[in-house]
Design goal:
Elements lengths: L12 H11 L11 H21 L6 E4 L2 H19 L5 E5 L4 H14 L2 E5 L9 H15 L16 E5 L13 H10 L3 E5 L11 H4 L3 E5 L10 E5 L25 H39 L4 E3 L9 E5 L5 H10 L19 H5 L4 H4 L2 E5 L6 H17 L8
Parallel strand pairs: 2-3, 2-4, 4-5, 5-6
Antiparallel strand pairs: 1-7, 6-7, 8-9, 9-10
Helix pairs in contact: 1-8, 2-8, 3-4, 5-6, 8-12, 9-12
């Protein structure tokens, strides 16, 4: 049983069928000025319009990428470097302490190679960034630097040196959902560009960019039912971003390279269908998630749910089982045909405890006992009942529970 949907998922049949013509008869380069190229360009244009329709933005604000990692890199590096080029005093980044490695490592690169300062925005014990704390860090950063605010906007106090901020919409390890609207509003008031990693959120939470108030938003296809290697960055039209790839100037100059029309079409199809199903699927899966969480906590004394109790994705249930090894539990679960993980697939194989859990104040030895279950929209109540039984059986096998509990 596959309960690791936060890591990846299968490609939807509809996405395969939509992309197939662009892998076969309509294989042209969309930059070519002949019939085959124009056919491919039309497919790409349609995909861009479809994504824009879901996000509520202009088609020209949709940039197709090779995945969520590239989209996050382009947002953080691209915006920060362009902003500093225009305003040299903008040399500071704010990112939450629970960001995906795509954002964390982009910020670290800018710090290491380009002299940016990086401030980690703390989270509470539930993994949430508090808007008041975020706003105070914006002001503190500016006051410490003595940089002047170039916007001259009425009502803004202090001085500002922050180039951009990034806080993920929903966490991939514990499922906590951030107050993105409030955070984006605080950034806007400070004249700071705001990016959110919405890779886990899409298909489960609203992603209309105007309602969220964000300047940039990154998405990944393989979390939605599109192929791995497909993604999107929404970049608001007047937000500058230096490209990471240089060449023929495709994607409005933001990402050079011959566009992957087939994957763009598959991404657009998967995103549209996920959005159509979102409200019904989220309500159904959330109901099953609540039952599963309650069952595990009831049957495993001392177990600990991580993440916010209510402000969380319907698709993630992450626990710590103090007194165990998370890896041992995972092995026992796999023996029982339950496939899940200890956290982010991008950190698989690391001996270090989850940086997300430690940022939430979970002790190192407890964080190393984490097990994450994540569900797709096809999960059933019977499957989660079987998974709860497997948790109990696995903990009995490693001596954490007495048989018969």
């Amino acid at each position: 049983m596959f309960l690791d949907a936060a890591a990846t998922g299968p490609v939807r049949r509809e996405a395969i069928e939509a992309m197939w013509p662009y892998l076969t008869g309509q294989f042209g380069n969309p930059s070519s000025h002949h019939g085959l190229g124009e056919s491919a360009a039309a497919g790409l244009r349609g995909a861009r319009e479809e994504v824009a329709g879901v996000l509520g933005c202009r088609p020209g604000e949709v940039i197709f990428t090779a995945g969520g990692t590239e989209a996050g890199n382009l947002a953080v590096k691209g915006i920060a470097l362009a902003r500093r080029s225009a305003e040299p005093g903008r040399r500071r980044l704010l990112i939450s302490a629970v960001e995906h490695p795509a954002v964390q490592e982009s910020a670290a690169y800018l710090q290491r190679r380009h002299g940016f300062d990086v401030d980690a925005v703390p989270v509470d014990a539930d993994g949430r960034v508090q808007p008041a704390v975020f706003a105070s860090l914006l002001e503190k950063a500016g006051q410490e630097s003595g940089a002047t605010n170039s916007t001259g906007s009425a009502g803004i106090t202090g001085h500002w040196d922050v180039a951009m901020a990034s806080v993920m919409y929903a966490n991939n390890e514990v499922g906590t959902v951030q107050p993105i609207r409030e955070l984006a509003a605080a950034a806007k008031a400070a004249g700071v560009y705001f990016h959110t990693d919405a890779v886990q959120a899409a298909g489960w939470l609203p992603v209309k960019v105007a309602e969220l108030g964000v300047d940039a938003l990154s998405l990944s296809g393989h979390k939605l039912g599109a192929p791995k290697g497909s993604g999107v960055l929404y970049l608001r039209g007047n937000v500058p971003a230096d490209p990471l790839l240089h060449g023929g100037g495709q994607e409005r100059g933001a990402r050079s390279g011959t566009e992957n029309v087939a994957f763009a079409v598959a991404f657009a199809t998967a995103l549209r269908l996920a959005e159509l199903e979102r409200e019904t699927a989220a309500a159904r899966v959330r109901s099953l998630q609540k039952k599963f969480i309650a069952e595990v906590l009831r049957r495993v004394p001392g177990s600990m749910l991580t993440g916010h109790a209510t402000e969380r994705l319907p698709t993630v249930a992450s626990f710590c089982f103090p007194g165990t090894s998370g890896e041992s539990v995972l092995l026992e679960l796999e023996r029982r045909s339950i496939l899940c993980s200890s956290g982010s697939a991008c950190a698989a194989g690391s001996d270090e405890p989850s940086a997300v859990l430690t940022a939430m104040g979970v002790r190192r030895e407890v964080a190393q006992t984490a097990v994450r279950f994540s569900f797709g929209n096809s999960v059933t109540e019977a499957e989660l009942g079987t998974a709860a039984d497997a948790v109990v059986g696995s903990l009995e096998a490693i001596g954490r529970l007495q048989p018969g509990r």
